[in-house]
Request: fold
Amino acid sequence: MRLVAIRSVTAGSKLAKSIYNENGQILLYEGVELTERSLTRLYELGISFIYIYDERTHGIVVETGVSLETKRKAITTIKSEFKGIANHLKLKKSFHIDHLNKDFAKIVRRPYYKREWH
Reply:
């Protein structure tokens, strides 16, 4: 598989990694044959690069550094925190960001500790 700019992908190419939206839901599954319509829609959604199957790179597997579960937790936490900040600003209240470090540490640090100690 190889990473390609969406504008360089041609219809008929096969997707090598599933594409997810910001909520972790699958937009397109790995192995699907891409059409002009699907490529246009991905571009409109702001997706600039995708992995496609390619003869030159057959057998190469790219591992992601962050699991889907970690991405989902991070997105949920970020959305929640921004809503909280927006509510405080709307009510003209002050807010403290001390808890942000704790919330984000729960997401970010946990996987790294597992890798280092096992």
The CA atoms of residues 79 and 85 lie 10 Å apart. The two ends are 29 Å apart (CA to CA). The helical segments are 36-44, 68-90, 98-117.
